[in-house]
Design a protein that fits this description.
IF3M factor, initiation factor, four-stranded mixed β-sheet, Ubiquitin-like (UB roll), alpha/beta, T_IF-3_N_sf
Length: 129
């Protein structure tokens, strides 16, 4: 079964690691601590623990408010939208600077159709002799 990437959010009380590196809600490092201490801190300050980095030793968790978690989720969603998706079609069109008016109109209509279909369009204009 493939390992699914979990969504960014509170991990609740299910923490599989015994020793954690904890960062407070202001971004200051609280150092390494046992899972029980981190949970106690979480309950005392009415915050949620969020996994930031899993592939380091010890894993990095951050104490966050619900508002901070929401803002981070929005930031990550925007970043994912901005990143290029695999399989994006790129269309390329080239023409001379001495192109006739009708040909230019036809090609601009074609470019508009490609943009509507969310294709990436590359236009090259060559200088006429």
């Amino acid at each position: 079964e493939p390992k699914r990437k979990t969504a960014f959010g509170s991990v609740g009380r299910r923490i599989p690691y015994r020793i954690l590196h904890v960062i407070d809600q202001d971004g200051k490092s609280l150092g390494n601590m046992h899972r029980a201490e981190a949970l106690k801190l979480m309950d005392q300050h009415d915050l949620k623990l969020v996994l930031l980095q899993e592939n380091v030793e010890p894993p990095v968790y951050r104490l966050m408010t619900g508002q901070q978690i929401h803002e981070e989720q929005l930031r990550r969603a925007e970043k994912q939208k901005a990143s290029p998706k695999p399989g994006v079609v790129q269309k390329e069109l080239s023409f001379s600077s001495a192109i006739a008016r009708n040909d230019l109109e036809t090609k601009t209509k074609q470019i508009a159709q490609w943009i509507e279909k969310k294709y990436h369009v590359k236009v090259t204009i060559r200088q006429a002799k």
